[in-house]
């Protein structure tokens, strides 16, 4: 078929890349463009359209189906206890949120102890990272305000959304620390902030991989500070 009979607008091409083809390379993008041309040829042969097809962001799904990747941004403004993190996957970078709430408060007294409950299909390394983050946040808050008992005597529930997707690795450590302190101080983090980095027990932020892909993911959702 003559390529001049099919025109894909720039907006449709950007949407195709953003919502269907995030992996490195252009092989999958090429397959989707070929699919658009095949369906366009079919429509022309069947007489469903004239001899010229324009594919834009409004009719793209008619040619390639529903988007594979949904919008990554769950919150326009994160409430206290919620912080955006960055992750690396086989499909490139992505954003994830660390959510924390106070599930219950322990009875007052010397024997009252705080704890954390983790959900979101987390691997062992990420669970250990969250425990380290909790220990550091507890000590940091004690130095900042020794009278605060939010972390000392409360059961904190930490969740990473998209519970059906396995998650692992240490790079959410600093994000968990920030989420816990945000919750304890009842103060949201600044707008358009995303974080990544392993945290040590003494509060050192250690290097992590996949920075290029993570920065691309942050830019994709409009983050201005990493």
Automatic annotation (TrEMBL):
Q: What is this protein called?
A: Uncharacterized protein
User: What are the catalytic residues?
Assistant: 171, 214
| Alphabetical UniProt keywords | ATP-binding, Hydrolase, Nucleotide-binding, Protease, Serine protease
Q: Does the keyword Protease apply?
A: yes
Q: Which family does it belong to?
A: Belongs to the peptidase S16 family.
| Protein species of origin | Cyprideis torosa
Instruction: Provide the taxonomic classification.
Output: Eukaryota, Metazoa, Ecdysozoa, Arthropoda, Crustacea
Q: Which GO terms describe its biological process?
A: chaperone-mediated protein complex assembly; mitochondrion organization; protein quality control for misfolded or incompletely synthesized proteins
Which cellular components does GO assign to this protein?
mitochondrial matrix
One MF annotation (Gene Ontology) recorded for this entry: single-stranded DNA binding
């Amino acid at each position: 078929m003559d390529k001049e009979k099919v025109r894909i607008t720039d907006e449709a091409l950007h949407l195709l890349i953003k919502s269907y083809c995030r992996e490195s390379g252009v092989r999958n993008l090429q397959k989707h463009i070929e699919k658009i041309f095949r369906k366009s040829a079919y429509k022309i042969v069947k007489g469903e359209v004239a001899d010229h097809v324009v594919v834009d962001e409004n009719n793209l799904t008619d040619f390639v189906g529903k988007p594979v990747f949904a919008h990554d941004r769950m919150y326009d403004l994160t409430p206290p206890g919620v912080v955006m993190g960055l992750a690396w996957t086989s499909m490139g970078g992505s954003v994830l949120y660390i959510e924390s709430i106070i599930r219950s408060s322990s009875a007052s007294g010397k024997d009252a102890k705080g704890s954390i409950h983790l959900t979101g299909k987390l691997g062992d390394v990420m669970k250990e990272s969250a425990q380290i983050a909790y220990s550091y946040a507890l000590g940091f808050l004690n130095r900042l305000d020794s009278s605060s008992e939010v972390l000392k005597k409360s059961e904190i529930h930490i969740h990473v959304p998209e519970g059906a997707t396995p998650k692992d690795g240490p790079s959410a450590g600093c994000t968990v620390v920030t989420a816990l302190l945000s919750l304890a101080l009842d103060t949201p983090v600044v707008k358009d902030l995303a974080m990544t980095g392993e945290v040590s027990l003494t509060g050192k932020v250690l290097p992590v991989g996949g920075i290029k892909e993570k920065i691309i993911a942050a830019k994709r959702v409009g983050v201005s500070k990493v």
